[in-house]
Amino acid sequence: MKNFDIARLRLHNQRLSTTTFKNPGDVVGWFGAVQSQDYAGAKWALGQRIQNATDAAIDRSFNEGKILRTHILRPTWHFVTPADIRWMLMLTAPRVHAANAYMYRQLELDKVTLKKSNAALERALLGGRQLTRTELAAAFKKAGIVADGLRLGYFMMYAELEGLICSGARRGKQFTYALLEERVPQVNTLNRDEALAELTRRYFRSRGPATLQDFVWWSGLTMADAKNGIEMVKSQFVNEVLEGQTYWFANSGSRAPFREKSPKAYLLPNYDEYFIGFKDRSAIGEVARRSNLPENSPSLLAHSIILDSQVVGGWKRTLKKNVVIIELNLITDLTKAEKRAVAEAANWYGKFLDLRVELAEVD
User: Could you give the domains of the chain?
Assistant: First the structure.
């Protein structure tokens, strides 16, 4: 197994190269969690893994609570399903709290203050109310709590991690918060060992081939927990060693990706799991290495153009009334067939947004 094989298998297992998923909940459940601090980009990440997806349809699923958005795994937002949110918080929230401990101290958020802030949030949202952050800031002020800037953000994150609040429906372009107990009916949950095994299983089935270090990065868990998780589920996976690293992945259908159409391109959004789901992203950087580009090159960060599993540049969008302008910043020359593949990927994005596409290449 070589880097190219790893990348092609990931395309397959991440359901980019082929998918049977029909709704956002299917995708999020397959992955376990999908990074989503850039809401528009995260919708497109889901959309590329759903048959006949549209931006509007994913908005509807989100507003209806079929997928939720909260802080989980690491100190950032992720999409997660209602069925998974409680056990995943139980498993990962203590680690996020530990990562946030320094900021809690800097912002003078002690246990008494955090308890008071949670009580204020519960009073404000009780009865099915879904309020914006600005409205909740007013509720904090009424309760005599100073909550502005970073302090407000960490009050909200703490409440999310404690399982008190989660995303509500959007109000126009504004996000709202709701009480988790009112937004999501109680379901049977998992104990800690079951949760650890399930998170490990979700990660390697959807992102493999991947390493222990990749899983630690993505999950936010300790190395000891990650090792225990692999031990629990390793009978369900196979592994291969490359340059001293052990890669775990699902055995079923593992060679299917090599029959895929080529050339095939994708315009991936920032924080797509094909990139952000791994600590070591070298498997998708063969073209970049040949081009002598540094790992922090702007062409390789944020929105990436993927061609036959490899990063070949970056892209950005500009939305206008009836058109989306897509600018390409390529790091290598493409053949006519490869350019057509990239154009097809751009048109796919336009169809997702229900907008006409104008394509431009940056010199």
Answer: 37-183 (no CATH), 257-361 (3.40.630)
